[in-house]
Design a protein that fits this description.
Number of strands: 0
Radius of gyration: 15 Å
Distance between the termini: 37 Å
Number of helices: 10
Order of helices and strands: HHHHHHHHHH
Shape: globular
Helix content: 55-70%
Structural class: mainly alpha
Oligomer: single chain
Strand content: under 5%
Largest sheet: none
């Protein structure tokens, strides 16, 4: 099975009706393809698949808890895709939002991978705006906080997660800097 192609089809089916969410998802997956060399060659399809699926929990038919990383992860687990379920469950510092929403124990049912793949997924998500545009991490976090408002649980979680998210992005950028440059 071509996991990245399957993930792209599933994400399109589930998220295309959600307009900008699909545009964001496509751009995150494109970015994952572009930076794939920061992960082991065998992990590249997993990175692209996780990028396609990171927001699948927003699909109306998958909403159970209303917390998209957990809803997406539960669906992926039901498909027998445990590693993807864990990457989706924990993408972009989801544990911080899980804590403020009271989902820490439910999220802990999914292992949190500490890897170049997990870092790269966070990097791709946080450098892609809500409509698929390239954006800085600081701008992306500001956009999220602005969308939800200063008193929201999401803003509280982002504030708590900022250092962790910045570290994942920095690790990915360091890996990108170590990649061989094409000859001119």
């Amino acid at each position: 099975m071509d996991i990245a192609a399957w993930a792209g089809n599933e994400a399109q089916r589930a998220l295309r009706p959600r307009g900008p969410r699909w545009a964001h998802t496509q751009a995150v997956a494109k970015r994952a393809s572009e930076i794939g060399a920061v992960v082991a060659i065998d992990d590249r399809p997993t990175l692209v698949a996780a990028a396609y699926l990171h927001d699948i929990g927003y699909a109306t038919e998958l909403a159970d808890t209303g917390f998209h990383p957990l809803d997406g992860a539960m669906w992926l687990r039901a498909q027998g895709l445990e590693r993807l379920a864990s990457l989706v469950a924990h993408h972009s510092g989801a544990r911080f939002e899980a804590a403020v929403r009271g989902f820490t124990e439910r999220l802990a049912a999914f292992s949190e991978e500490q890897s170049a793949v997990a870092d790269a997924l966070t990097y791709c998500d946080l450098t892609t705006g809500p409509n698929g545009e390239r954006i800085t991490v600081a701008s992306r976090l500001d956009e999220i906080k602005s969308r939800y408002g200063p008193a929201s649980l999401v803003t509280q979680a982002i504030n708590a997660a900022t250092d962790t998210l910045a570290a994942a992005v920095a690790r990915t950028e360091a890996r990108m800097d170590r990649l061989p440059r094409p000859r001119k």
